[in-house]
């Protein structure tokens, strides 16, 4: 049993003249907020650290409370309504409120039991999200939502047990300027964990037909499942015709047609579709109908090559991979 590895298109395959038509088958940057500290005794905050002070001011300018234009302050203090999940570069899935404002968690809070330690000036910079009128949506489990009573008696939304906040210096929906502030504030992932810690799934391979480099046979073609494709000496390309019928089809299965935009190493001009006598469609490469072999047990197997002296692994240009048996 032989295995193989992916290969690029050969120069010969790319240089082929298209034969399909002649087959004969006439049918904004964030500032450094490293001075922000957890709430507690807010009077102990360093006024020169660029964080919040005992007076509740937050920001870099006199009289700046961190909200900028006070007209949009309500957008960061009101109900979250239906939460959403959006994908952020470098962070992955991030939870937002219904208006798209990023939601955050604070490492100095606790989940067992849930409790918030962000009060007074801290809460000006990081407005707690009310528990009322909040609902989960696709990507967020409803049981992950909860609430915690704050020291002032209000109820704050929790996600995965973590109290939920917005950030005053996010100036537009979609901003994530609060992520990483002071090393203790992080955008929320849908499970309540810190965003950016989830492993992203690798991009799904949608290739339906590819050229492979087999150690013994050289370049041959496989389908989306990695099965080797074969051609049959008793078929013909001009005119295109399959002579594998009846019991032959129990062992040799006609390969299904493919999307020509999902090829790798096979020239699209050589890929066509053959209509069998029973009306079903079969993939053809350079006008040769192609098949996969039921005797191949796994991706990369080439047990069908040389069978009966009639069946051969097919190359990207539609030729036989070899004239000798394995």
Shape: rod-shaped
Order of helices and strands: EHEEEEEEHEEEEEEEEEEHEEEEEEE
How many structural domains are formed by the residues? 2
Main beta sheet: strand number and arrangement?
Answer: 4 strands, mixed
Overall residue-averaged pLDDT value: 82
Characteristic terms for this protein:
2 domains; rod-shaped; 4-stranded antiparallel beta sheet; single chain; 326 residues; Lipoprotein_repeat; mainly beta
Compose a concise summary of this entry.
The chain has 326 residues and is mainly β. Helix content is 5%, strand content 25%.
Folded structure, characterized:
It is a single chain. With 326 residues, the protein is mainly beta. It folds into two domains: 5-26 and 204-313, no CATH class; 42-187, no CATH class. It is 5% helix and 25% strand. The protein is built from three helices and 24 strands. It has helices spanning 11-15, 120-125, 248-251; strands at 5-6, 81-82, 84-88, 92-96, 104-106, 110-111, 114-115, 134-135, 145-149, 155-159, 162-163, 185-187, 209-214, 218-223, 229-232, 236-237, 240-241, 252-254, 263-264, 271-275, 281-285, 288-289, 291-293, 311-313. The model is unreliable at 5-21 and 25-71 (pLDDT under 50).
């Amino acid at each position: 049993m032989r295995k193989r590895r992916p290969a690029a298109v050969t120069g010969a395959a790319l240089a082929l003249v298209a034969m399909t038509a002649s087959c004969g088958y006439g049918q904004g940057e964030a500032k450094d907020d490293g001075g922000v500290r957890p709430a507690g005794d807010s009077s102990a905050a360093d006024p020169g650290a660029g964080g919040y002070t005992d007076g509740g001011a937050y920001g870099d300018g006199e009289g700046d409370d961190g909200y900028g234009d006070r007209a949009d302050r309500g957008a960061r203090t009101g109900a979250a309504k239906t939460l959403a999940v959006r994908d952020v570069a470098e962070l992955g899935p991030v939870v937002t409120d219904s208006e798209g404002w990023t939601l955050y968690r604070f490492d100095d809070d606790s989940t067992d039991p849930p409790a918030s330690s962000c009060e007074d000036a801290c809460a000006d910079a990081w407005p707690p999200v009310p528990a009322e009128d909040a609902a989960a949506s696709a990507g967020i489990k409803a049981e992950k939502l909860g609430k915690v009573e704050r020291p002032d008696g209000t109820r704050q939304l929790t996600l995965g047990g973590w109290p939920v906040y917005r950030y005053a210096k996010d100036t537009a929906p979609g901003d994530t300027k609060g992520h990483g502030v002071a090393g203790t504030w992080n955008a929320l992932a849908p499970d309540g964990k810190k965003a950016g810690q989830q492993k992203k799934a690798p991009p799904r391979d949608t290739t339906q037909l590819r050229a492979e480099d087999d150690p013994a046979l050289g370049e041959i073609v496989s389908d989306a499942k990695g099965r080797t494709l074969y051609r049959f000496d008793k078929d013909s390309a001009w005119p295109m015709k399959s002579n594998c019928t009846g019991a032959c089809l129990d062992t040799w299965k006609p390969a299904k047609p493919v999307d020509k935009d999902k090829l790798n190493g096979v020239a699209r001009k050589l890929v066509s579709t053959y209509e069998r006598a029973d009306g079903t469609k079969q993939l053809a490469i350079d006008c040769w109908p192609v098949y996969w072999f039921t005797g191949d047990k796994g991706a990369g197997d080439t047990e069908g090559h040389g069978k009966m002296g009639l069946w051969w692994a097919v190359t990207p240009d539609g030729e036989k991979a070899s004239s000798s048996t394995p």
